[in-house]
Amino acid sequence: MKRTALYDVHVDAGARIVPFGGFEMPVQYSGILKEHDAVRHRAGLFDLSHMGQFWMTGEMVARWADTLTINAVATMKPQQARYNIFCNEGGGAHDDTIFYRLERGWLLVVNAANADKMWRLLNERRPADGVELENRHGSRALIAIQGPQSAAMLQPHVDVDLSALRYYFCAEGRVENVPVVLARTGYTGEDGFELFLDGADAPMVWNALLRAHSDEGLEACGLGARDVLRLEAGMPLYGHELTESITPVQAGLKWALKLEKPEFVGKEALEDQLALDRYSRIVGLVMEGRVPAREGYSVWFDGRIAGSIRSGSIAPSVENKNIATALVAQEASAVGTALEVEVRGTKHAATVVALPFYKRPK
Amino acid sequence: MASLEDLLFSKEHEWVRVDGESATIGITDYAQNALGDIVYVELPKVGTTIAQFANVGVIESVKAVSDLFTPISGEVIEVNGALESDPAAVNREPYGTGWLLKLRPTNPDETKSLLSSAEYEKIAAD
């Protein structure tokens, strides 16, 4: 089991550690609901150094990446970040990722559990010339600060004007006087920033931010809170809403699919799926009662099983209701459809709702 | 809140306080802390007869579903209905308002197989 550069910091702070994506990661610090509340109303600090960071350089990177992904890479502006998905030939997802276009190259951030698979895949498909790949997984760190107060808290520590940094853009600068790539991206449904930095600098930066702002409500947060936050915000988690067999079309990610690109892996399968329009799809569910829906539970419609739960949680930002995503047959997928979720042999009423469950106040 | 000295404990991290014809059952402070934020408690129906160490329900935290066992056998005479709207009471006061159910014990000898507060503390500390 691997450890991030911040592992000792987590243990010293009394965080509860669990295995995740091959790393020993903090699942919670003070408590999932308390950490969730901090991110929705103040700010939270996350160690995401387990995520894979690949550095890509060369004149061919954008054109090559466009043949492997469903979203556009070559049209990205300097300093832009963009969500993107690598698919297999059948249209299922190898991984969902973010590309960051920097001055001297491209940063590709992949899911921890998929990092080895993605590194192999990129190297297998790499053209003979024009693309150089460097695996920084584990040596580089990633710290996220997320929440409505994150810009105000982070600003005194960085030499980048955060008010000029737009959503899904990034900048190269310094945090606490060490080099950082600073991006206005995140996975919580709140405003926030992600800081890519050298692993050796990570504990110093983490401690500086917490020390300076814990009085204002900045909380160290674990992966448990992150999962509740992303689910409320309707964001897919690889392995749940998106897999090698659940396609981006099924996952409701058509907005990221650029069919005008001439050619990319999975394009034909995804076009066929869209044209046929007879596929099971990911929907949002709200449970009527107080029973939580959990991954794997059967979902019933019209007297038969129509699918199963992919993620579920209590949702403090959705009136404390139990929310879930489910992969269900098309006829059971319209917003407003009454479904039942089978929990330990008993069926409980649920309703299909539009995603996301939660949108931050403007 | 009762004194911990009056309680008996199971290795499964439940406590019981026997008071004549009524035995109150809950989970320990160690257990609630290990579970984290509790969001749902499923308890048996009043009138159900339950064997010692049987599975009588579930306790769900944000992340996990855990089985609930009873440290003694008996007939369920009351369940803590307040937990339906306030399951977090189990986190706040596991030995008080966060109690789970009351049984009419069927076999008083069973308590001999349970642990004292001091014995349980040793297990929980490991």
Describe what you observe in this structure:
The complex is a heterodimer of chains A (362) and B (126). With 362 residues, chain A is an alpha+beta fold. Among the domains of chain A are: 7-50 and 138-232, Probable tRNA modification gtpase trme, domain 1 (Gyrase A, domain 2); 280-353, Beta Barrel (Elongation Factor Tu (Ef-tu), domain 3). Chain A contains 8 helices and 19 strands. In chain A, strands 10-11-12-9-3-13 form a 6-stranded mixed β-sheet. Chain A has a 6-stranded antiparallel barrel with strand order 14-17-16-15-18-19. In chain A, helix 2 (32-41) packs across helix 7 (223-232). By secondary structure, chain B is α+β, with helices and mostly antiparallel strands. Chain B has one domain: RNA polymerase II/Efflux pump adaptor protein, barrel-sandwich hybrid domain (OB fold (Dihydrolipoamide Acetyltransferase, E2P)), CATH 2.40.50. Helix content of chain B is 16%, strand content 35%. In chain B, a hairpin with a 4-residue loop joins strand 1 (8-9) and strand 2 (14-19). Chain B is globular, with a radius of gyration of 13 Å. The A-B interface holds A 16, 27-28, 31-33, 224, 227-228, 290-292, 294, 313-314, 344 and B 36-37, 39-40, 42, 58, 60, 62-63, 65, 84.
Strands of the largest sheet of chain A, in order across it? 10-11-12-9-3-13
Supply Rg of chain B: 13 Å
**Helicity level of chain A:** 10-25%
Number of helices of chain A: 8
Find the biggest chain interface.
A-B, 16 and 11 residues
The amount of beta strand of chain A, in percent, is: 25-35%
Strand arrangement within the widest β-sheet of chain B reads 1-2-3-9-8-5
Relative strand content of chain B: 25-35%
Described by strand count, sense and barrel closure, the largest sheet of chain B is:
6 strands, antiparallel
Strand and helix order of chain B: EEEHEEEEEHEH
Largest sheet of chain A: 6 strands, mixed
Derived structural class of chain B: alpha+beta
So, CATH architecture of the domain at 7-50 and 138-232 in chain A?
A: 2-Layer Sandwich
Order of helices and strands of chain A: HEEHEEHEEEHEEHEEEHEHHEEEEEE
Can you tell me the number of structural domains of chain B? 1
CATH homologous superfamily label of the domain at 7-50 and 138-232 in chain A: Probable tRNA modification gtpase trme, domain 1
CATH first level of chain B: Mainly Beta
Rounded Rg of chain A: 20 Å
| Principal-axis shape of chain B | globular
CATH class of the domain at 7-50 and 138-232 in chain A: Alpha Beta
Oligomeric state as shown: heterodimer
